[in-house]
């Protein structure tokens, strides 16, 4: 809806806020009003560590950011994923048992309309993966140490939970007393889900049936789960575009493990381990996000040991990484990042100075350049552009 009078806008926002509050009590879907009329620019959403989702637009010509405003109140929206063909956004949240919420996106205003939710069966849902082939959403539960599969209907709304598998194991650090599933991807080939578990120091390899959307425990004699170095804290995973390699970023040791991937047997074979820390670094180590850039030639990593963004060239034949660039992330705690649809801009969620930071991307070299452009944002933890 487009509103032309400021009084009408205020009335609608107040009404929507009341409806959202009622929905939180009753469990009914709610419409979050856009705080502004139709705007131009690339739309993306930011999850806050507290209880808020915000909309932001990026000017594709200059990289400047402008706030759309708060689009919903939701507890700990640590990860979002967009539907590949529909104007639908999914976010994980924490209501004590874990939940995924589905929204319809109004691209003109940035408003989100809740169209349903599904329980994930484990607290602290922190990572999502959507498989459009099987119309299944995979959800990693950090608090529950588990991963769930959830049916996605033809209209993008959520159906029933199809399966739930629980991880096992622990590690030597205080954060590793029990399993904490931090990331999940459907591996190339579509036959296995890979789950990076910070608490267990493992990458779990679970068979996935695309016909039923169900996860299962490995059969006897199947390829074993990957067991990482004690105290490494596996965080997130990224597969190469050619499907031959998988890359793991370890949070607690701030390094990357490159694997050769066998999509038939489900076996991960380590190739090399690369530190993301600066030479001679002796402080507390931490790494956060890992993603391939547009085109799939360059791999980007956020390092929180000393606040840096790193750019690697990934060899498509060997899987090995070559460091091309290490530059300041414009703050000490880069948490998450995403590329805009043009591939020319990278937006980083900075928790330290509590802002969104924009870098320019050279599509030929993959290198990043500071722009000086940013937008205040309270404790951002997730950034997702919607195409």
Automatic annotation (TrEMBL):
InterPro entries: Cycloisomerase_2, Haem_d1_sf, Lactonase_7-beta_prop, TAT_signal, WD40/YVTN_repeat-like_dom_sf
Entry GO MF terms: 6-phosphogluconolactonase activity
Taxonomy, superkingdom: Bacteria
Transmembrane segments: none
Biological processes per GO annotation: glucose metabolic process
Keywords: Carbohydrate metabolism, Glucose metabolism, Signal
Record keyword Oxidoreductase present: no
Signal peptide feature range: 1-32
Pfam families per UniProt: Lactonase
Gene3D superfamilies in the cross-refs: YVTN repeat-like/Quinoprotein amine dehydrogenase
Keyword Signal part of the UniProt annotation: yes
PROSITE patterns for this protein: TAT (PS51318)
Family assignment from sequence similarity: Belongs to the cycloisomerase 2 family.
Name this polypeptide is given: Lactonase family protein
Species this protein is from: Novosphingobium flavum
